[in-house]
Amino acid sequence: MAAPDKVTDLTSAVATHVRDGMTVALEGFGHLIPFAAGHEIIRQGRRDLTFCRMTPDLLADQMIAAGCVSKLVASFFASGSAGSLREVRRRVESADPAPLEVEEYSHYGMVCRYQAGAAGLPFFPLRSYAGSDLPKLNPLIRKVSDPYGGPDIYVVPPLRPDVTILHAQRADRSGNVQMWGIVGAQQEAAYAAETVIVTVEEIVEEDVVRSDPNRTVLPAHAVTAVIECPGGAHPSYTQGHYDRDNAFYREWTPISRDREAVLDWLEEWVHRVPDRAAYLDKLGAERWAGLGVAPRPSQPVDFGRRVAQEAS
Amino acid sequence: MSTTFSDVAPSSTEFLAAVAARQLVGKRRVFAGVGLPTLAVDLARRTVNPDVELVYESGICGAQPEGLAEGIADSVLVSGAAAVLSMPALFGYVLQRGHVDVGFLGAAQIDRWGSLNTSFIGDWDRPTVRLPGAGGAAEIMPNAGECIVVLRRHDPGALPAELDFCTSPSPVRAHQEDPRMVPPGHGVSTVITPMTVLRRPEKLGELEISEVHPGLTVDDVRAATGWEIAVADDVRETARPTVEEVRLLREEIDTVRLYLR
What we know:
The complex is a heterodimer of chains A (312) and B (261). Chain A is of the alpha/beta class and 312 residues long. Chain A contains 12 helices and 14 strands. Chain A is globular, with a radius of gyration of 21 Å. The longest helix of chain B is centred in the first third of the chain and has 11 residues. At the A-B interface, α4 and α5 of A face α4, β9, α5 and α6 of B.
């Protein structure tokens, strides 16, 4: 029996799987950030999402400004070279235009939450937080005694998103997803979720995947829908395909300072653009070519093939 | 090797990066952050410590970047690295298990024990400034062998008697909560500011003035600090960057002036 074909388009995937009020994780640690999928969520006008993302950078600023998010679960509220997330800051510092509920951890705290969710565990211990004010800020960070007699230790609860959305280099039609470069906590965030949507630079033949099984971060059983979406991580990057659009990140800082400018940007670059292909057209071939990378291929590895052994 | 000293201002990025780079003599594995630490580790690789292994919280171990990284997840850190690990492996096995010798951290506020605030200025509920939060700093502080903090300003607001919020606690605060929960790492060993180099020789002790930058006095540093700061027995003047160190920073490391201003 052939494996089911999970390839769909982004509009259908979001319409089918992402509903108002859901807990949605969009992961990718500075790499493979699923911007195209986030923009589709904005276009479809989702509301009241609990948005989970370790580093809510520009993507969070955009989705929050668009009114999609009522709660943010995260561990770092800034964007590297783009600096502060002004939409997040406006809401947190002055409830402008509305307050934003924030549930805050450290990076490893978020990683441990995904690990607990992925493995079906009730909580996950980590050696952080002793002496920190974070457990007072977030009462879900709790301290337990070690049943084996060691010192007390802090634990975090599982994070189980309704939907996790990721971007990757490639997948086959049945949903075996391969990625390389920085892989962050994507495998954990996917296994923690009920539904997993993955956009990829290219859909490849099953043989390509099977030629290098260690490269598969998510086997098909962990993936609900696959969408071919070249350029889907811009302005972040996809290792080996295109580089981070650093100029875009810098351009965001002045936009982010002014809520009207953010809304204008969303109107121009999200609402009036039907899909990622149109977004890339609008970005222009010249700018896109400027993000190209030179080849630096890995050396192929040899998995070997069993040859018949003579019976002794 | 030239030992001509540069006259760059002690508050300049070049001065702070050169002082930070010298702290890495003999250190094997360094957890590097974005910005000034990127310059410092790059300079250290070209001067005092060619063999230092760079580890980034994005999962990269043994980075050998061909260009200046813009951020800790830059593709230039990935290409040619020795390994790229998942975040459970990086934070759990590499960092929490104790494989990192030095962590570089920044902060909006630091207190006398070397606890850091990177979360809020003002009230937690309605902060005057919402800062970036913990990131990996809350893990680096307890688990790295020691932490070096670089501050871009030195005044009683940045070095207050009481933090507005403690994001990444010193072992002193962990000890106050429960002596059995004191982490393996030393916590902050060194603080580099535009005025001074502070050191914290004891794991459960206070920061003290160890070096004072050229043109400043111990009293200047005291007056700019929010608590009655201790003074080491043998305070000396901070060694200026050499002309060669400044040249490397400007002409070979940050040619595009990403971090140097």
